[in-house]
Amino acid sequence: MARKKIIAGNWKMNKTPSEAVELCKELIPLVKNDDVDVVFCVPAIDIIPVIDAVKGTNIQVGAEDMSFEDKGAFTGQISAAMLVDAGVKYVILGHSERREYNHETSEEINKKVLKAFENGLTPIMCCGETLAQREQGITLDWIRQQVKVGFQNVTADQAKQAVIAYEPIWAIGTGKTATTEQAEEVCKGIRECIAEIYDDATAAAIRIQYGGSVNGGNAAELFAQADIDGGLVGGASLKADFGKIVNY
Ligand code: PGA
Question: To 10 degrees, the CA torsion angle through 236, 164, 129, 233?
Fold first, then answer.
């Protein structure tokens, strides 16, 4: 069965609640496309107004992070149960900005992935190499390690539902997209890694996105690759360009 493409915006730390509602109004008519899954991953404080603003449309709402704890004395954190109760369906986990600025490890990200599944959320687990790692020729080894640790104790049935976002760190927010060949090579490598951990059926079902300077001009070629099932989009998800990406 063909995998449905999934195109997710990662708003990062942009848009106040009122600005978020305005952006939704602008984007709703532009991102109509029932052939793909469209997700807006928004800052925590924007989640409730955005869910309200996109009600009745084809847009699903995602969070940008969450705690691996259930509840309790964890000041400033947000639990999976809180996201689910608000109507969130997806959660980005292990974005390279969180790995870098918040020192998140793959082991912690694995705990979050398990917690997301336990609560019925779909994780969008990010992985990606630095420019130095690419130049050293260790990209695939590094990504395989991130995926293997991130998916520890995840069942095959869960993995089939998961989304992995391959985002080369040197391509994020730089305007420097990976070439189509580079992006496909790693996404294919991730699928092979999933086949090794689980089986061919799981590898055929899991959705793998490319992220890093995706825009209305390069989306069609990237998404046409055999192993690229859509994109995780930062900068361009805050503009009308996101409509072009969704309707690539
Ligand atoms: P970008 O960000 O599209 O602005 O490069 C992608 C991401 O970090 O998810």
Answer: 0
